[in-house]
Amino acid sequence: MYHPKAIVDLIAGNVRKTRNPFGAFHFVMNRWWKNLDLPRDGSTLFYTGLMVQSVPFIERITRQLEALEDTSWAPLVGYGSWIPKRLVQVGSLFMTTPKERAPYEQILKDMVALLRRSGVRFAYRPDLDLYSGILLYDLGDQEAFEAHARFVAKRLQEAGVRTLITVDPHTTYAFKVLYPKYVGAEFEVRTYFELLRLQGEPNGTRVTLHDPCFFGRYLKLSHVPRRVLRDVGVAVADVQQSGPLTHCCGGPAESVSPKLSREIVERRVDQLKQTGAPILSMCPICMGNLKKAGADVQDLASFLARRVSSSGNGQNRKDQT
Amino acid sequence: MAFVDLSFPDELERFGVSTTLDCFNCGTCAAICPLIYEHFPRQMIRYAQIGARDRILENGVELWRCLHCGLCTQTCPREANPGELILGLRRYVLHHWRRDGHVPS
């Protein structure tokens, strides 16, 4: 196990200097939207909070943390905060490959396609799509979280943003619950799947949903993706621990103890495999972690996008990207 | 030996915890917690109730094993919010580490 103070100080330093937990250039983390021609003007924003784009970075970093955990090198991780900001940023250019980023960028493109197909109007502002700071909150660095949240809220408010269409449970929780509570910033927050209006005929397809803790318990939204799947004719085979009683994927422990994280996710994957149905995830952190334990898991949005485009009943086919 | 300090639950309110004394130590949280080891989070909650700050600080690192998954909070029969209490203890411990210039080893 790494000392939490070393990890917290490293992440808080990165967020303070670069506004993301990895110390990366913003343009390096957020390039999925290029060539999509998304509208820029509007008070309703598609908002990723950079979580989906983070997964290839997390995978790279946790591979290294896992190799060093409980070795004599482990205490040196804390010195990472001494590396100059510019050097870390330049390093971020080489941290992930296009091949590693592609499946995660595709998830966001699929979400955009599904929202368009459902007739939802929204804008995207890459410059305003900022990290929520949720990891600082989870790790107990309240001061750093609130400072970052104030910065983000101010940027969004100054740009006249009123509604955020979020894509992952952690960013959703941050803007729906934490921003109003701790920095007094109120936005209307809707998760993308709450806005989906899709149709499809049943053809015997079954899936198993892994509910992330924050959708299942904290935000009580588990019924919504099940409604969307029912609308497109897909049956959900639930495992015993689902909905409000879902089992954690182990992801939250990966920065402090990759070993503990692996122990938890292996237990969860054993549960999910029991139905024999394909596994769907709704959280990029869960997806990255479930994959690490060898699960064949796909994102809900990517599954839905394939489903509606193959069923041949949709309009706006050209919007599929 | 740990010293008992009954004012500690009041101090924890500064760190966002208002339910320290609501817990009656039934252990449901420890039974349902995915960590399944050494009475987590029940033991930490008990330390908080009696104000055993030394024990909390000595074992502070363990607080970061918590996944903040919320299963304990979901199932707590007293609605004592055990998961949020652990998060508040993280804030308390981190505050003390920083104030005291604690160097991770």
UniProtKB/TrEMBL annotation, chain A:
One function term, GO molecular function aspect: oxidoreductase activity
Highest taxon above the source species: Bacteria
Gene Ontology CC entries for this record: plasma membrane
Domain Cysteine-rich positions: 207-291
UniProt-recorded name of the protein: Fe-S oxidoreductase
Record organism: Desulfacinum hydrothermale DSM 13146
Origin organism lineage: Bacteria, Pseudomonadati, Thermodesulfobacteriota, Syntrophobacteria, Syntrophobacterales
Automatic annotation (TrEMBL), chain B:
Matching InterPro entries: 4Fe4S_Fe-S-bd (IPR017896), 4Fe4S_Fe_S_CS (IPR017900), HdrC_iron-sulfur_subunit (IPR051460), Helical_ferredxn (IPR009051)
One of the Pfam families matching this protein, by short name: Fer4_8
GO CC, one annotated term: plasma membrane
Keywords from the UniProt entry: 4Fe-4S, Iron, Iron-sulfur, Metal-binding, Oxidoreductase
Gene Ontology molecular functions: 4 iron, 4 sulfur cluster binding; metal ion binding; oxidoreductase activity
Coiled coil start-end: none
Domain 4Fe-4S ferredoxin-type: 54-86
Protein name: 4Fe-4S dicluster domain-containing protein
Organism the protein comes from: Desulfacinum hydrothermale DSM 13146
Lineage of the organism: Bacteria, Pseudomonadati, Thermodesulfobacteriota, Syntrophobacteria, Syntrophobacterales
